[in-house]
Amino acid sequence: MQVVPLNQLIPYEKQEFTLDLLHSMHPNDPRNKKPRGSIIVEMAFVPFLEDSPKYSGRIDVAGNGSCNNFHGNISVSGSGLLLVAVIEAKDVEGKKNHVSPYATILFRGDKKKTKSIKKTRNPVWNEEFQFLLDEAPVKDKIHIEVIGKRRQRLGFMTKESLGYVDINLADVVYNGHINEKYNLINSRDGIIHLDIRWKVI
């Protein structure tokens, strides 16, 4: 395992490091002593500390005065809008076939849900939900769960969890935006695609 000491990193500045390639991540593995080449990496250290000063500028990670991976006007104080877009899920399945999945979003006691998509393992929702907040949710998590419902022979509807994910929102606040696919917990192969943004008002 390669380690870059934090005291060698300058906050918000791009730096280049040459790291030796290792056979394994075990530090005492004797095979790591054999030369295996090296890799050159570029790093930009962005400290996400609660007591760090408010950042409202642009981080020059590309080294040319522009930045595509970080967003300006990032603030950890004041009110804002949390935008949660539930794009789609893949390979979600219930105990029996022919479930109609929908997603629920639970945040600070507020629960929202998407429409259900009939009889599919790969639902596409493309629905966005908004949460107006008095302060940035740097210490909060958001719970998103995929639920499958199906009609029994007597006409009653039954529901079952097809998997869930809990997401720390600190990265969303400090980066302004995340667009990721997550493996669903308690699901064999299920994946959910989310786009979450934090906008300061």
Automatic annotation (TrEMBL):
<dbReference type="GO" id="GO:0005783">
    <property type="term" value="C:endoplasmic reticulum"/>
</dbReference>
<dbReference type="InterPro" id="IPR000008">
    <property type="entry name" value="C2_dom"/>
</dbReference>
<feature type="domain" description="C2">
    <location>
        <begin position="62"/>
        <end position="182"/>
    </location>
</feature>
<dbReference type="InterPro" id="IPR045050">
    <property type="entry name" value="Synaptotagmin_plant"/>
</dbReference>
<dbReference type="InterPro" id="IPR035892">
    <property type="entry name" value="C2_domain_sf"/>
</dbReference>
<protein>
    <submittedName>
        <fullName>Synaptotagmin-3</fullName>
    </submittedName>
</protein>
<dbReference type="GO" id="GO:0008289">
    <property type="term" value="F:lipid binding"/>
</dbReference>
<dbReference type="Pfam" id="PF00168">
    <property type="entry name" value="C2"/>
</dbReference>
